[in-house]
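*Target chain*
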Amino acid sequence: MTAFSPRKTATPAIYSKETRGENFFAKDLNAQRVLERIAPEMLKRNFDRLKDFGAFVGGPLDEQASYSDRVAPPVLETHNKLGEKKSRVIFNAKYEDAHQEVYKRGAIGLSFADKDAEPHLLSFTMGYMLSQSDISVHCPVTMTGAVAYVLDKFAPADVRAAYLHEMTRMDGLTKTGGTWATELHGGSDVGATTTVAKKDGEKITLHGLKWFTSNANSGLALATARPEGAPAGSKGLGLYLVPSHLANGEQNAYNIRRLKDKLGTKGLATGEIDLEGAEVIEIAPPPHGLRIMMEALEYSRIHNAMGAAGVTRRAFLEAASWATHRKAFGKEIINYPMVQNELFDLMVRSEAATALAFEAAKTFDVALKDEEQRIWLRLSTALAKYRTAEDAVQSSKKALEMVGGNGYTEEFPTARQYRDSMVLTVWEGPANIQALELLRMVVGKEPGDDVFIEKIRKISDALPAELAAEKTLLDKGLKEAMNALLHLRASPQDGERFARKLLDHMADVLSGALLAEEAAHDLTLGDARKALVAKRYLDKAFGEKKLELSSDADPVHTHFKEIVSYAPIAPAKLGYAAPANDTVKPKQKGLKP
């Protein structure tokens, strides 16, 4: 029986003049190939589902995103018609319908089914596509999944039974989630929480201000708070579930003070919430509250990385579509070498971000079954969250520049994508927080340094002879990382001085290793295209920095059409030995001019 393989029947990508209306999964041959390699059975079960989702994301969701951003962002009503202080957020109907449509299609529910639950990788993959059109929808989907994950894994049985279904149902009535940790004085220092949990018999109420709450109108939120008499710091925190409405239908005792006026994600309601005696359900008492909230944030960080990788993909898609159809000085600009260089670098950045994000997403499911994988999960998540967010911003900027003056206008998606991408560096902990997480793993009690070195060495040692040059560069990057890790083990007091540099370098090493691993896999299938991608990434990360001018043919330009259309390149064309098995042959050639 022939194994399921979308690669064998895929046709090279053709770039339309408009990206809206495209199928963001069917056209993304790189993401398909990543899934085919790391989760073939999941892809087989859900291939048609993902194609349908890709059509929804590239069409109705993208149209809604522009409308909500430019014409009808959410508004806050602070009092009801009787003058009572009862706040509520009013959304336009297109946003509400699109938001619920995501849940109806299983973006959260399929991973929490009682029978035959899909891996969380499916939800993360849908998140990868969502942010290509609308981070303002992907954000609440992320938090809904995070709250559902906490309820499923950590909540008391009666709480799980009462509330999990409300967040995982797929009938258009899903209650969405929120994670309320940030306070005005604390920011990322959640241990400084001043929100108080008061207990009166069986009833627990929260009192305080949560300063930055995305999806402010959530039906069920997780909030950190300090019970009366609990010690200061993180060990004194409990974790509580805050329903928007009580069992009798009355609104719970909290109010949205105002909505934030933000740089981007304008379709999303982000607010300041006054907790004025809101009745809550305890999920975990001190000292476990912050630890379990961090479980929710870890889940969200993976979605953040996947969404950021999606943004880099959309940036490339916009630039490639524009360059394919825009004429200047007598021909389409995609034919100019400088444009080809920029497009190739955008593509390399996109594929590196995708490899990094999918590594963290894949590991999340593995770690649920194997506790020993928790170290690699935390490491890969920190590296992926940091690097993909940076890539999203830089890629969005490059795409805007490629489109030019039109790209700077709000009529084109590049302007919104650039504004929205900035939030990915801030949500779920900025770069410094990821650097501190990295330090905890590689300098503290955990053997994260050994785990990282072993992971990269294993990939490097498995590379074929055809990738000797790439292996040399990867080993150079690994050696530099090892030297830094050894120094910090001996001198941990230097950690915070060098943590950001280490974070950046280790992200380069892992990204390069994953691309090289993909290249090695593709070579066995008779395709050397990914080898060019891996080489470009590793050259930029660890190659000698010097200006080289040569008249020799550059394989990037020689094979440019195959590269950007994901068509296979025969290994022999790049001087590699032919594989023993059959090669993958495209059904048609190249780019449509």
